[in-house]
Structure formats: structure tokens, C-alpha cells
Amino acid sequence: MIKKDFWDKIKIIFTILTPITILISGYLINLTLQENEIKVKYIEIAIDILKTEPAKENTELRLWAIKIIKEYSQIAISPEIELELINNSLINYLTDHEGNYITDHEGNRLTTN
Length: 113
Hints:
There is one protein chain. By secondary structure, this protein is mainly alpha-helical. The chain is 61% helix and 0% strand. It has helices at residues 6-51, 59-72, 79-87. Helix 1 runs antiparallel to helix 2. The radius of gyration is 26 Å and the shape is elongated. The mean pLDDT is 89.
């Protein structure tokens, strides 16, 4: 039996650990991407809720939507903006199939309201 020296043993260890490390890294990256995708979906739902007209019946839902945006957004919402979102709907601009804003003859963006 031939004795393996230190570097041969290191080479064997790294040969075994490399695919395991790649597998774990890929899993963690995929997990992070899935979590970010879920956050984006929640924010989209919250924005859709905030586009509706505020009413006494949907105040709790609007508060939930604001909480979701505050939790998942990387930009903080001030108390003033929060109050504005509770009392007013977001403006929903019309866009074409390419995402360009649709405007009137004066260049003003058209809304769904």
C-alpha cells in the first residue's frame, strides 16, 4: 500500500467537498431568489389594493397593504405617506403593451380613474 502524503489527502478532500459546496451554494441562491420573488408578489398585491378607492369597509385591508410594503420594500415609508395611502388611492396610469405611458394630445398621462 502506498502512503499518501499530505497534499494528496488535501486533493481528495477538495475533490469531494467541491461538488457539495456548489450544490449547497446553488440551493441557497435559489432559496434567496424564491424569497425575493414572493416579496415582489406581495408588494404587487399591496399596490393593487392601494389603487382601489378608500372606503370605511376596506381600511383594514389598506392598512395590511401598507404594512406589506413597509416590510418588504427597501425604501422606508414616512408616516405622512402612510396616512396619504390610507386616505387616497394610488394613481393608475395607462400603459401600452410595451409599458409606455399613454398620454392625451397635451402630453398628460391618462389614468384609469
